[in-house]
Amino acid sequence: MGKGGGCVPSKKKQPPVSDDPVSTTREAEPIPVNDDGRDDIASTSLEPTISSKLKIFIVFYSMYGHVEGLAKRMKKGVDGVEGVEAFQYRVAETLSDDVLIKMKAPEKDVGIPEITAAELVNADGILFGFPTRYGCMAAQMKAFFDSTGQLWKEQKLAGKPAGFFVSTGTQGGGQETTA
Q1: Does pTM surpass 0.85?
Q2: Residue 93 Cα distances to 3, 40, 60, 98, 132, angstroms
Q3: How do residues 6-31 score in pLDDT, each as one tens digit?
Q4: pLDDT tens digits, residue range 84-103?
Q5: Any long-range contacts for 65-72 (C-beta under 8 Å, 24+ apart)?
Q6: How far is the C-alpha of 79 from the C-alpha of 172, rounded, in Å?
Q7: Which residues pair with residue 89 across a beta bridge?
């Protein structure tokens, strides 16, 4: 930093003093007032107005229903915010029905539609949810993210806020590495 040349002022260097003794006693000029009855500011309310609700997409993958349960709680929280509405979507399953049966995976909630990458542009914000598998996200979610390459290339998701939530079977099961 050197001697007094940086952000912290030097103890030896005195602060600059104005040569104009009037400047410390001079009062601010009064603000002119329009007496003609009209305002220069538009006659609209200063309260923010939302023409339509903000759309938050909750996009998740859940094989056994744990992340789906988190997604439903997220939706309840988002819907509780005035002027915001949540929409739940699941990503496509990459495993066959035979494999899912052998893994004893429950049926998917048919009331939650699958999403395509192209539909993400319709969201004002996105929350992604997925399980942790050996410290990584589930392959189904990875496949979905891989399908968004064109959107990123064209900057169609630029400026959209996003967040995520994860679930693991144990403490220390890889949440931090998944993040």
Answers
A1: no
A2: 63, 58, 11, 12, 16
A3: 555 556 656 555 555 555 555 656 65
A4: 999 999 999 999 999 999 99
A5: 65/106, 66/131, 66/167, 67/129, 67/130, 67/131, 67/165, 67/166, 67/167, 68/109, 68/112, 70/129, 70/165, 70/167, 71/129, 71/165
A6: 31
A7: 59
